[in-house]
Structure formats: structure tokens, C-alpha cells
Amino acid sequence: MIRGTDGKRRSVTIHDVAREAGVSRGTVSRVLNGGHYVSPAAQAAVNAAIRKTGYVVNRHARSLITGKSDSVAFLLTEPQERFFEDPNFNVLLRACTQALAARDIPLLLMIAGTEAERRRNLRYIEGGHVDGVLLVSSHSGDPVVSELDAASVPVVACGKPLGQRARVSYVAADDRDGARSMVRYLHDSGRRRIATVTGPADTPGGVERLAGYRDVLAECGLPVDESLIVPGDYSRASGEAAAELLLERAPDMDAVFVASDLMAQGVLDTLSRGGRRVPEDVAVGGFDDSPAALSTRPGLTTVRQPWDRISTEMVRMLLARIAGEEPSAVILPTELVRRGSA
Amino acid sequence: MIRGTDGKRRSVTIHDVAREAGVSRGTVSRVLNGGHYVSPAAQAAVNAAIRKTGYVVNRHARSLITGKSDSVAFLLTEPQERFFEDPNFNVLLRACTQALAARDIPLLLMIAGTEAERRRNLRYIEGGHVDGVLLVSSHSGDPVVSELDAASVPVVACGKPLGQRARVSYVAADDRDGARSMVRYLHDSGRRRIATVTGPADTPGGVERLAGYRDVLAECGLPVDESLIVPGDYSRASGEAAAELLLERAPDMDAVFVASDLMAQGVLDTLSRGGRRVPEDVAVGGFDDSPAALSTRPGLTTVRQPWDRISTEMVRMLLARIAGEEPSAVILPTELVRRGSA
DNA sequence: CTGAAAGCGCTTACAG
DNA sequence: CTGAAAGCGCTTACAG
């Protein structure tokens, strides 16, 4: 802020800097934008003037001319808004915010829980108010993906968008391999009647983790008993219900691989109410390594998803897309975390 | 988007709408901004043209001239980033995002976990890139409050900023009264050796909830035994530690009022390890009604903070401040939620 | 009620 | 390397 001749505060503009430095506004703009074609002397004068005046570029003016907003949307499309209760979501959101902030790019948080919200957010995005979007949507076939693609807005999804013909970048943990390592671990520790509680069939985690489970059974020559496979919806309650069903159908099971920690919590509850000891009678393995995995007794053996790296990659890829690169996919490895439950 | 004479896509501007409607750009702008001094006929023509062309206002151009950004920051200053693990935070962030979205105002999420981030965010905000800020900071005396105030940026804090001379609006739950209702409830159910685990002394929740505890003891003619008062830092671990201390100092306690659900979880763990039955031997009351309160066995009796209303009020007040109103404070009532632990 | 015009603060060819 | 100038898309007094 500086005072005008009338004593009123107004913010300092490129004009003030130019006058202070004794150069034209064009020159100031050039040093602002990389300092190409600027003499060292002018460069120094401008920088000094910027420091002296406390100049901060007006992004609106800049955006008006460049056509870019220098901001990015974090769009969460989740009808159930369940993601918000998911601890993974926090890590993701925080890490993305910080990775962007480090590049001085603000993150606009958008939540499309209803159809109306979806339309509004889409209009805003397609209005060119953001340069790209980080998309978090647990369910595949989300129309938002193709709509953004059609509007040629760069998108990077978290998790592989299923059944999409749109060309989107995405980064995902290696669900299938993570599931394999868990089931293999259960098998290696002597379990032979291994059940599984899956995620929804229209989510990558639902599909891939089940595939990994089947992989290992086949690999070990174990028969696949379909009655040992029960679907859940990632909620704790669905974990409880699934475990009840399993207890009924297969009282002899000696292990359960659960496709999320939240559901595993529910499984643990039911097992304990059913008088089963964990891990003595039944070993339980989760997926996510969420904070929930630490709060159970015994602690939950689970599969860690590398959320920090996922976030960093998403931001990196989005920026690359914005800069004109083609879409790409990154699959990140998971890690087995041993605690008491298996 | 429309095609130019050269066939290239460019976005539709107010100019296109004006031509389509057969009026001047000034008239289009007037209907965009409330329709004052516009004839019904022109109004209709413009609206039709807007629909036909799919026009969306360019906010950068508008902001450049109005000096307003029509966006708001959600600033989280939390050295430990603990807030992010706090389920309350999710509710708050989500509700604020949606309340703003309903008014078509985007929310910029900013996290100031380190001093460098604090400086960067402050520069951004003071650069006039947002019209106001929703401040979430668990610790009082946060310099950010006075810095924003000095830059005359409208601020609404979540929770009462302690030790601030800055004139900030805030909305808070009635911590003191909430604590009173809990301690009164414990007393009414026959408990006489009521301990408490407090929050940090530099947070409103730490101070006020303890004050409420003391209020009721005085009110009931119970002596205040300082050895029954143990400080925590809102973390689960600090709850465990506090309970250990209490078990040692006052093995005869028959109730604990814990200033947060997360800490109460820790207290429950320690109590159970120490062989105390809840609620038979020791009644436990929490504060927050966070999801954690549902996952304990027994369920946690706690004090619900009205996060939905807090968020709505914060947004309403910030918008009022931006519109020029004076700062104000709103204190919202809490509600006792009975479950199994007390 | 309406149009013509100035101007918001910046970037970017275009000449030098 | 540098300045003068045009122009990004809008709003807002100012005349009519």
C-alpha cells in the first residue's frame, strides 16, 4: 500500500515500480516474468524498486491477459460424502495443498455432493477459473471426468477412473499388488481358510484388491470358495455385517483380508462379539494404514498406501498437463505394515 | 466457447452477448450486476443472449475493476497440523465450503504449518487476492490475527482468539456451559470424586472447559482437589498419560470429565488396562461428539459442538464483515449426548 | 433507461 | 536490451 496524492491508500502497481526504478513498465514486467532481455543494471534497479515499494503483482490483471488463472481446483465428487470421513482424504488434501503452495498456486476446494453442486462446480471450472483439476472421486464412471475432458480442462484423478474413454491422467497405489502381499502374508503364516471383505465393485479398490486375493489363492493352489467372498461398501458398519455373514457361512475361516481399515474395524468388533480371538483364531488384515489401524486392539496389520507420494505425483502431473504434456499414469507401490492382528 | 472468424475457439465475452442482444456492453454489464436502470425489454434480450451464447463472466476482468476477488480463504494455522487429524475439522471445512459455494464464492484452502508457509500465505492474502479469511487456529495469541487486522482484511475466527487486541469476529461453541452440563450430569448421577483432563491452557477449550468444571464443583459445594486436574494437549496419547497420573494420584476417583473425545479415548484405554470398568467404577465424559465417540466401547457420553451451525455462522459473519459491518461474536449452545460411558 | 468512453493493472508483440 | 502502444474483458461515472 502507498498513499496517493489525495492521501488515500491504494496498492502499488507496476507503474510505481517502473517510476521508482527509472524504467518503463514493460521492463518491469519482463523482470517479473523471468528477466529475459533485461540488462543486469535494469534488473537490479527493478528488484530494488520492488523491495522498496513492497510491490505484489495483481494476479487478476495478469490472468486477464495470459488467460491462465494460476490456480487449481481440488474437486471432490462423492455422493455419500464418505470420503470426508476417510482419514486418507485428509492426508491427500493437505499434501496437495502444500505441494501447490510451494509453487505459489492456490488450491480451490470444491465439493460436489449433489447434482446441483456438480453442475455449479463444472460451470465454474469450465469458465476457465482454474487451470486444471485434481479429481477425487471414489466411484468410477463419474460423468465429471468426461465432461472435463470434453471441455479440455487438464485433469489428474486419484485412483484409476474405471470405464472411462476420456484421456485422463491418474495416479494410484498398486491395489492389486498390495492385496497380493497381504494375502500371501496370511498364507505364509499358515492360514488356509482365508476370507475377504471387498470394496464396491465399481471402485478400483473393490476390483483390484479382490483380483489380488484371487491371484494368490491360485498361486498357492488354494481353491477359491466364493462363500468366503463378501462385498462391503468401505463403511465400518458394512464390515460388521460382512463378518457376521462370514461367521455364519464359514465358521472355520482362519483369516480375513478386508479391503479397508474402516471395514476391518467393523470385522474386529463382530469377531470379538462372536468370541473369536484375533489373531489366534482369526487373523485380520486391512488396507490403507489409516489412523484407525492404530486405534484397534490388537493393532491392525494392513497395507499402507503412499499418500504423500500420491499427492506429490498428482500435483506434478497436473502441472505437467497444464504445461502441455500428454496424459499419463503412475502406479505407486504399497507396503505391508505388520501389527498385532495378523 | 465460440469460434472466431479464424475458426479458433475463444471464450464468449460480454461483447458477444451485447451484439447478440442488440445492446451496448454497458447494458449487458448492468443486467449482470443486478439489472438496475435497465428496461424489461433489454433485460430479456440480454438474458436470452446469455443463455444462447453460454456466456460466463470473466472474474479476472471483473475483479480487476472492482478490486474485489469474490473469493475467501480458509486459513489453518496449526504448527502441529493436529487439527487435520481432528474430525471436527472436516465437518468445519466441508460446511464452510458448501455454505460459500451456495453463494458462488470459491474457498481457497491455505495451510500455515510452518513460519515460511505463514509468511507466504499472509503475503498472498495481503496482496488482495481474497476478500476475507476464515481463520482456524487452535492456539491463541496467533500473530496471524493481528497481522490480518493490521492489513484490514476481514477475519472471522473459529473459537475465541485469546489475548488479542485485534478486533476480530469469531464464533464459538459455549465451552464453559458445555463443560458445566457434563460435570453437572456426572454429579447428578452420584459421582463425587470427579477428575478432569484439560486442554492446553492457551486454548479457549482448555481454559473455558476447566472453568465450567470449577463452576459446577463450587455450585455443588464440592471441594476443588487440584490433584484431580491434569492437563492434556488434545491428543489421544496425552489422554492415556493423564489417566495414568490420575490413577496414581487419586485411585478413588469415580468420574473423569475429559476436554476432548480424542483424549477420552486414551483415558478409556488406560482405565481398561488398569482394570477399571466404565461406567461402573469410573464414569467418563468427553467433549466434541466426534466420530471417535461412536467407536469406543462403551460409546462415549460427550458434549456436542454444533459444527454445522458454527460453519454457517462463520460464513455469514465473514460476508457481513466484507460488506462493511463491524466485527461481532456469536456463541452457540452445546448439547449433552448420552451414551454408555457415563 | 442507454451508449460511448475511460480505465482497472498487467503482458506482449513491435519497432527501434 | 528497451520503450510506446495495444489490448485482455469488464465496470462505472458521464452525458444524453
Layout of strands and helices, then pairs:
The structure is a homodimer of 342-residue chains.
Chain A: E1 2-3, E2 9-10, H1 14-21, H2 25-32, H3 40-53, H4 59-66, E3 72-77, H5 87-101, E4 107-112, H6 115-129, E5 132-137, H7 143-150, E6 155-158, E7 169-173, H8 175-188, E8 194-198, H9 204-220, E9 229-231, H10 236-249, E10 255-258, H11 261-273, E11 283-285, H12 292-295, E12 302-304, H13 307-322, E13 329-332, E14 335-337
Parallel strand pairs in A: 3-4, 3-5, 5-6, 6-7, 7-13, 8-9, 8-10, 10-11
Antiparallel strand pairs in A: 1-2, 12-14
Helix pairs in contact in A: 1-2, 1-3, 5-13, 8-9, 10-11
The first copy, chain A, binds a DNA duplex (16 and 16 nucleotides) through residues 11, 13-15, 23-30, 32-33, 37-39, 42, 57-67.
